[in-house]
Amino acid sequence: MMASRIRRRFSLIALLFVCALSFVPAFLFAAEKEARVTVLVHDVKLMPEDEQARPATLNETIQENTAVRTGTNSRSELTFVDLTITRLGSNTIFSFNKAGRSVQLNGGAILLRVPKDSGGATMKTAACSVAIAGTTVVLEATRSGRNRLHVLEGVARMALTKAPNEWARVGPGQMLDVPPGATSLPAVQNFDVDRFMKTNPLITDFPTLPSRDLIYASAANGSERVYSSQPVSGGTPPPGPPFGRPPHHGRAPVTNTPTGNNPTNPNGTKETGRTRVPRKPSTPIAKTKPTPSPTPRKRNVPPNQP
After folding, report:
1. 122-140 pLDDT, tens per residue?
2. Residue 27 neighbours by CB under 8 Å, 6+ apart
3. Continuous segment of H or E residues that includes residue 199
4. What is the pTM of this model?
C-alpha cells in the first residue's frame, strides 16, 4: 500500500515537471521577440499590425512586427532581452522582427548595437541592405533615397538592393555614403569617431552605450579596419559571415623570428621583434710546444782506438 502511494506521488511529480519544461521554453522564446521602451522623448507612436497608431509609454513591451514612428525633435530607444539596442532619431519609421535581428528602416536614422557572439542582424532600406554581427552602426535613410552607414565598431557589409553583387565591407571608423539612385557603391571613407561620438544625437541624447569603450578601442588600433577603399563589383559575396579578418595595409605584419631552424639562430633561443646578427666565430690559436734539441750521446771508444 505504501509503495503504491509513493509510486503515484512520483508519477505526479514527474508529470508536473514535464509540463513545466513544455511551457518554459515557449515563454522564453516569446520574451526574446519582445523589446522594451527604455528611452522615450516627445512624440513616439506604435503601429501594430492591423491596428491604429497609438502613443508609446516608457518601459512598455513591444511585440515584433510592430512599427515605431518618431516625430520632429523626438527619439526613442528599444532594448531586447539579449541587450541588443536600437535607437531611433527624429522623423524615423522603423519595424523589427526576429528579436530585433531583422530591421526595416523606411526613413530617418537608427543606431543598432548587437552584442558580440549573439548572432547577426540585417538592416534594410529601400535602396540598401546591411549585414552586421557583434557591431555598433548608425544607418540613415533620407526621403530622397540617400543612404549613409557609419560603423563604430565591428565590421559590416553593405549591398545595393537592386544589385546585390554590388557590396562593400566597412570597418570601424569608416563609412559609406550612397547617393540616390546609385547603381554602384562609392569608395569607403574614414570618419572622425571621436567627433561623431561627441556630436551625433543618437549618442549624445541617450545613456552611455555599453560598447563605448570597445568603440574607442577599435578606432584607436584599427585592427578590424577594412583598408580596401573600393567596393567589390560583379561578384558573389563570400559565404558565411562577411566580416572575417581584414588584410594588412601599408606594412607587413610583425612576426617573431623563427627559432630552432634559423641559420642565424642555431641555438633556438627565443627572440621577438628583431633578428640577431650572428658574430663571426673567432679561430682559436693552437698552442705549439717547442721541439727539444737532441742531447749528444757519449761514444764508448776502446782504449787502443783514437
Report:
1. 999 999 999 998 889 999 9
2. none
3. helix 193-199
4. 0.66
